[in-house]
Design goal:
Elements: H1 2-16, H2 25-44, H3 51-59, H4 61-73, H5 79-103, H6 106-112, H7 118-149, H8 153-164, H9 172-183, E1 187-190, E2 193-198, H10 199-222, H11 227-248, H12 255-285
């Protein structure tokens, strides 16, 4: 989590050297929500929440965005757009479950089942629900911010990540243990050549670079379009990464995978066609 904030600082500084267009007050609430979302997602994994369940709740951000948009901003979407969002979410869920079932047989699942307290499991699910709702709320807040103060994506990225950094002091022990673990990792080998660098540090640096690129593009998108459109794009990006992981790692591609892909494809086409019809109607009225 900390590397995401550092990447935001390095990128955002480029736009902040000249002027600060958006008032600092506008970022405090967003930075707080951003921090709580990241912490909730990470803490949920400590409560025996499986990765498939984690991904499923992440895909629920689309539905949460529609719900909060209606409750907080009185936004009403067409039935076509609502159905397209349901199709995309259902497709991601089906694909995730198919990937999970193809990797774990019934015998392995029975062996892995352990009596866990209901409270322990519910705590992780509660954190995932909280993170999904706050993620949708975060997108709406960022959309409002750009509508009020103008489009300054690099500046927004800088302040949101800088203001969230002090919160990581509460996780100092976790960060310190992670640093020790990274330092004790295996030495890096590339094409048979030995480099005196712990391999995990190299992987983390690469992860930081890709996180940096991804977050910078997300902030640019938020400044250009609605939070729902951004949520759809992010969901499709996550779905594409799952498809590539199945293909690249040679995992079986079952009928359930195909159904999930079909649902996502139909939902995406329906969603984009709704926007196209809306823009066409606006031009016709003008």
């Amino acid at each position: 989590m900390a590397e995401v904030a550092i990447g935001g600082i390095l990128t955002g500084c480029i736009g902040c050297m000249v002027t600060v267009e958006i008032l600092t007050k506008g970022y405090a609430r967003i930075a707080l929500v951003f921090f709580v979302v990241n912490v909730s997602n990470n803490l949920a994994l400590r409560y025996d929440v499986s990765i498939p369940l984690f991904i499923i709740f992440h895909s629920g951000t689309l539905l949460a965005n529609v719900l909060l948009g209606f409750c907080l901003r009185n936004r009403i979407y067409s039935w076509g757009k609502l159905l397209s969002i349901v199709f995309i979410s259902a497709g991601v869920i089906l694909f995730t479950l198919a990937d999970h079932f193809s990797k774990h047989s019934k015998e392995e699942d029975e062996k892995s089942v352990q009596p866990l307290s209901i409270f322990h499991s519910c705590s992780g699910i509660f954190l995932l629900v909280l993170a999904a709702l706050l993620s949708a709320y975060l997108g709406i807040c960022q959309e409002d911010l750009h509508c009020t103060y103008g489009n300054h994506s690099q500046e927004a990225m800088f302040f949101i990540h800088v203001l969230s950094l002090p919160g990581f002091l509460f996780f100092y022990n976790d960060i310190r243990q992670a640093v020790i673990h990274f330092n004790n990792s295996d030495i890096l080998f590339i094409f048979g050549l030995r480099f005196p660098i712990p391999s995990l540090w190299v992987y983390m640096i690469l992860n930081c670079i890709f996180q940096w690129i991804c977050i910078a593009n997300v902030h640019t998108l938020i400044s250009l379009t609605t939070s729902l459109n951004v949520a759809v794009i992010i969901t499709l990006r996550k779905f594409l990464s799952m498809v590539l992981s199945v293909i690249l790692f040679g995992n079986p591609f079952t009928f359930m995978h195909c159904v999930g892909c079909l649902f996502v494809l139909l939902g995406t086409v329906a969603f984009t066609s709704c926007d196209f019809k809306f823009k066409f109607a606006l031009k016709k009225n003008v």
